[in-house]
Specification:
The structure holds 2 protein chains of 2 kinds. Chain A contains 7 helices and 10 strands. In chain A, β7, α6 and β8 form a beta-alpha-beta unit. In chain B, strands 1, 2, 3, 4, 5, 6, 7, 8, 9, 10, 11 and 12 form a 12-stranded mixed β-sheet that branches. Classes of the chains: A alpha/beta, B alpha+beta.
Chain lengths: ~220, ~400
């Protein structure tokens, strides 16, 4: 499903070119659960942004779902994000002053489809938040907010879920709840790519990619 | 993108920040309200001024010749003019100035007592020639106007202005009755249709017409005119006619080369244009102020929207991550600006219409609301939103979602 060949990313920070990613090459098959592990500043977020079609590589080619997306336009990348990719963030990133169900509906607005309130409600039930749909983000606990975010990432039925430190802001119980949902989704056939610096979280994965100073290498699976 | 859902979510977003939305709208509301009031009041003032001039003059396609070198602004009468304008001058203008179709001779006086039985008044007395009616375009409500035969025979007949008729004959038909003008009895020949208010707002109907010859020989015993109205064949040649009349009268009055005229000639159209232009200069200044207020309203929308863009970086990042393209973000912020500006504009129009009604009532002007003014106010509001919304929207669209999500 995903194939990266010789992907490099250089960007300029205060006028100084910084190479965040060097010649990364790997593949992820549909249905895999992959953890990308590295300390902060290692380039793992850059990699995740490229995988998520939020960013384009400086050099190299990125094949996603049979198409080369490394040189696509903003509109085309947005379509791919909308239909095929779901994002989960460390800080949940729910829209403020917006109810849980409206947050879940948001991706439907940008996809070419009907906005279905009932589907959004079902999706909240799916992550264990039935009857919380009218609550605002500020009225929910961290674990609940992250589950709303997961429901949001799933609403357009994407093939790929990208999670950036999804348990980083959660206590152990809430974190393991979120991890359980991710494993269930993987069991249902979703491809999951999870970025973390946390060894405990990494231990969940069948496959771990280690990243350091922009260099990527395969680590042996521990699960 | 699902446009309906998109539109709904933008509306919902605005509704959640009511105070901010109202602050953003306020400037446009004030600007559009003052624009609406100014354009409506300006237009009705202009029309009302023209109407009152027309009431006074009947037609603009004339030149008016009055005795005396100074341009006497007030109402002329036998007691306040020089005896320099003669009957023969009027005849000469009619015969010798090619731009002139016909000439009406006028000899008028004020403060003459008029009586009918126990009713009395002091309407203005106008000695006129029979063509006065046709030249002014006035109408007779009852009876007839003064005829050529009346002028030739020095007939003692009178035609009453609408107000003079009401004053002397309350609840009575004046036709055929005899009134006393000064000490001379006149038979009422007709009553005029009311002209309405003059430029100063006063009545133009408190007057009595009699034959100019009768006025001169039987009533006032004066051999000069107070006014001559010359009708132009073509309104475009007014200035040429004025030049010809000046040359003719200077020769007739034997005025030396370097001496001043002992008469003055004016073109009412030019005078009216001067008056309405003066009005429109004030209006233009006010209009610039109103436009400035509106533009400041637009700038307020822009600056608050710019603050909004930096406050909402995270929201922009999230929307981009879940599938919004740059264009979708651009459209969202632009739509917000246009909706706010349009909302402010609509409130402004409502206030403006109310304000126009109040001002019209205070100024005794007819309430005039042109759909054009409403439509252009709406268009201005939308344009303002687009104009001042596009930069914040562009900034929002150009926000890097990766940086925004990392904040």
């Amino acid at each position: 499903m995903i194939r990266l060949e010789q992907i490099s990313k250089t960007y300029s920070r205060d006028g100084v070119p910084v190479t965040a990613l060097r010649d990364a090459s790997f593949s992820i098959a549909a249905g895999e659960f992959v953890v990308i592990r590295g300390v902060s500043g290692s380039g793992k977020s850059t990699l995740l942004n490229i995988l998520g079609c939020l960013d384009s590589p400086t050099t190299g080619s990125y094949m996603f779902d049979g198409a080369n997306v490394s040189r696509k336009s903003d509109g085309e990348l947005s379509q791919i994000r909308s239909n095929k990719i779901g994002f989960i963030f460390q800080s949940f990133n729910l829209l403020p002053r917006t109810t849980a169900v409206e947050n879940v509906e948001l991706p439907m607005i940008y996809a070419d489809q009907e906005v279905s309130r009932s589907r959004a409600v079902q999706m909240l039930a799916r992550v264990g938040l039935a009857h919380r749909e009218r609550h605002y983000a500020t009225e929910l606990s961290g674990g609940e907010q992250q589950r709303v975010a997961i429901a949001r990432s799933l609403i357009n039925d994407p093939a790929l879920i990208l999670a950036d430190e999804p348990t980083g802001n959660l206590d152990e119980t809430a974190g393991s709840g979120v991890m359980n949902i991710l494993h269930e989704l993987n069991d249902e056939g979703k491809t999951i790519v999870l970025v973390t610096h946390d060894d405990a979280v990494a231990s969940h994965a069948r496959r771990v990619l280690l990243i350091r100073d922009g260099h990527l290498r395969e680590s042996e699976g521990q699960a | 993108m699902n446009i309906v859902a998109f539109f709904r979510s933008v509306m919902r977003g605005l509704a959640r920040k009511k105070v901010r939305a109202m602050l953003m709208m306020a400037g446009v509301t004030i600007g559009i309200a003052s624009l609406t009031i100014l354009s409506s009041i300006g237009e009705s003032t202009r029309r009302e001024t023209m109407k009152r001039f027309k009431n006074m003059l009947g037609t603009f396609d004339t030149v008016i010749i009055r005795p005396g070198s100074s341009k006497n602004r007030g109402m002329v009468s036998l007691t306040n003019v020089e005896p320099s304008l003669r009957f023969e001058d009027a005849a000469a203008i009619a015969a010798q100035v090619p731009e002139i179709r016909q000439v009406a001779q006028i000899q008028n006086a004020l403060d003459i007592d008029v009586k009918y039985r126990d009713h009395s008044g002091t309407p203005a007395i106008f000695g006129v020639t029979s063509n006065f009616l046709d030249l002014r375009g006035d109408e007779v409500a009852e009876g007839d106007f003064i005829s050529d035969e009346d002028v030739r025979s020095l007939a003692k007949v009178a035609v009453l202005g609408a107000d003079a008729g009401k004053q002397l004959f309350p609840g009575e038909d004046p036709l055929g009755k005899t009134i006393q003008i000064g000490d001379v009895p006149f038979v009422v020949r007709g009553v005029m249709v009311a002209r309405g208010a003059g430029p100063a707002g006063g009545s133009l109907d408190n007057l009595i017409f009699i034959p100019v010859t009768t006025a001169s020989k039987r009533l006032f015993n004066r051999e000069f005119l107070t006014m001559v109205i010359a009708q132009l064949k073509d309104p475009a040649v007014g200035q040429l006619a004025i030049d010809h009349i000046q040359t003719l009268l200077r020769a007739r009055h034997r005025i030396a080369q370097d001496a001043l005229d002992d008469f003055n000639v004016t073109n009412p159209r030019a005078v009216m244009e001067q008056v309405t232009t003066m009005g429109s200069t004030i209006r233009k200044v006010l209009l610039v102020v109103a436009i400035l207020a509106t533009v400041i309203g637009g700038v307020a929308i822009m600056s608050v929207a710019l603050i909004g863009v930096s406050e909402r970086r995270k929201e922009i990042g999230v929307r981009r991550a879940v599938g919004a393209s740059r264009n979708a973000i651009l459209l969202q912020f632009l739509l917000e600006a246009v909706l706010l500006s349009l909302g402010g504009g609509i409130v402004g129009i409502v206030i403006g219409v109310g304000g126009t009604q109040i001002v019209s009532r205070l100024q005794h002007l007819p309430f005039l609301l042109e759909s054009e003014a409403v439509l252009s106010a709406t268009a201005i509001s939308i344009a303002l939103g687009l104009l001042f919304g596009v930069y914040p929207a562009w900034k929002a669209a150009m926000t890097n979602p990766i940086d925004a999500l990392r904040d």
